[in-house]
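quick one before i forget lol
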Amino acid sequence: MQVEALLLGLSVLFFLSILACKAGYRFGVPVLLLFLIVGMLYGSYGAISFDFTDMKKVQGIGTIALCIILFSGGMDTKIEDIKLVIGPGLMLATIGVVLTSLITGVLVLFTFDIVSVSGVALNMTTALLLASMMSSTDSASVFSILRSKGLLLKNNLRPMLELESGSNDPMAYMLTLTFISLVQQGGTPDYTSAILTLFTQFLVGGIAGFVFGKLFVYLINRIQIGNASLYPILVLTGCIFIFSASYYLQGNSYLAVYIGGVVVGNSRFVHKRSSVNFFDGLAWLSQLLMFLTLGLLVNPHELVPVIIPGLIISIVMILFSRPASVFVSLLPFKKIDNQSKIFISRVGLRGAVPIIFAIMALSAGEPQARLLFNIVFVCTLVSLIVQGTSLSFMAKKLNLTEDPTDLGRVKDFDMEVAEELKTILAELTISEQVLNYGDKLLSLPLPENSLAVLVKRADNYFIPNGKTELMLDDKVLIISDEKESLMNALAQMGVTPEDDIEKDEQWSIFGGLNDLANDIRSGRFLKF
């Protein structure tokens, strides 16, 4: 294929996926599910012919993508947020993953004994390999849904789930590699050697990630680069170095790159904000790329024989394996109530990682890898549809949501403040109720430690003073070091945090379809 044709195809593919992303927020479904569908339509056996069958190249893409996803997840993990939940989070990420794999593996074996799939019989090792591929959860899917609905969770559930989702991939990766090796060995597997190797790689990977992360932060702050645009590239270089160097040290590369991301993300270094934003976009691109890859690789004709066992395995994982592993893992933590455990059990979405693990089995030439890949596809699809679309409903039903306490996003001003500065930005839209206090800026009941620093009127921006005359629909950017006082003042003027959160509590699927159709007809759908 000519490079121009390849680039044209990829550009169209990415554009369709971004449009699907926008639609996903309106439907309240995981946007990665829509990426998956786009990939199927664009794939070799879908509506448009596109050859994507080189497993070695696909595995290489998957390895790089997972490396970036884990490093970005580590950078987003705030030590202050996870201090209170580090115990249960790590238990879910380690013991929980092992228990999910073991329980699911046994039930997979029983499923194949009951339901015949083209005469294929799985042994226990292959069943555990399949279970290990699907044993980790996907934070990107979970929190894209929660953010699209504007939900805030009680009981520190969000940092706990973020910690679990970010740190459970290395355990699932090691289990997958271990069982691929055991399947290829044949005969009687040496489980003792496998467990010892698992422990050694975790220890070396954890130490390497911490040491390399600290060293890299030191280097970033000492190297003076004239071009600020190069700092995000420098951080990307560190991410790749931590991953590859840990591999050659015989450590778990995925654990190392996640811990390295945690160290870097919780340290101060120059141009940190631009680097974090760069990695956030890069991680989403990696997620998008892997879900498109799964869609491109799948052959719909091969799915028919595995639909029934795939559905059975999915139901088993949703209703039994995940809940059992969560409740057992959290037994030592008496303060976590049953409602929280039930919700955590429901947050077991499969994401990009099982795709990469299934591709690893295909690339390794595992005899039944294609069958396992198809089952992973079905289970991922079911998980995204069933669990993904019901998360916000479950959170509300279990009374685990709380009112927003943030001031919302600043949407009309491309400005942010550094984390170390104890100041906040808020955006005030001038309404009739606000104008009741007077049409001068000094008439607004803002707290003493707050400043109105910028006004947007139509498409024009200007710096105001106390005598500035305000007009209806003006946008005022406010900076303050007293969050609670500012929130009280905004509430006094009729502004609540919910005003700046993109959500619609009355949205229904039929109303959403009608709105989406109207948006497409009017051209609003294409406005970003």
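fyi The chain has 22 helices and six strands.
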